[in-house]
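Exam revision sheet. Question 4 asks you to relate a sequence to its structure. Input first:
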Amino acid sequence: MLLTVDIGNTESVLGWFEDLTPVHVWRIATDRRRTGDEIGLQLRGLLETRNLPAPERVVVASVVPALHRVWLGVGKMLDVPVRFLDGGSRVPVTLDVDHPLEVGADRIANTLAATELYRRDTVVVDLGTATTFDCITADGVFAGGVIAPGPTTGMDQLARATARLPQVEVESPMRVIGRNTRECLLSGGFYSVVDGIDGIVSRIVEEWQREALVVATGGLARVVAPHCRTVDRIEPTLTITGLAIADRYLSS
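Answer key, structure tokens:
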């Protein structure tokens, strides 16, 4: 059995895979202060609630370098090998950018998944702490993309920078024109994300000159993407599926 771990700046997504099927998915907070023993105990608890044994191996994509050693400690605690996907990994993708080693492991995982699952030119919109737009060719070339603030990042910054505006969640508003401060913030935050995605995707397609499939993934994909005119598919587990594909090559 395989455990995949996508470590983001805010959340980490854990996937329990049988072949390429994510049978169980958990989301836990990313905390740089936690030790391998603490995360290992939490992981054991998650597995026990589903009557699952320890995994045979773990594949990790991380944008938080400080947690690499921590997850190696988790592997030692559970007595399972832990492998990391990064720009130097021997996987069947080409990083056609100026600095390949700077490409985030999550974007490499998205490239692997999109290439195997869709086999056509694809733009992956990954909604996390940052929203990334990955341009991926049908033959597995990561051709660059865009990095923008994530859905909650702008709202968090607005609440911190103003004295009287409350914090609101990113969710679909009942109407565009708010009748109170909360409704105004909810509408502004939500539709700035939706229209920002549509605008950037439109510019990418125009510049790239390809009839690309647009796929949304990430924790807020199901909330935001249904309102985007440019998104064709919603695949919340795309990144961890890419990690499961990477396991074939990292284990050889």
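Marking note for examiners. The first helix runs from residue 36 to 49.
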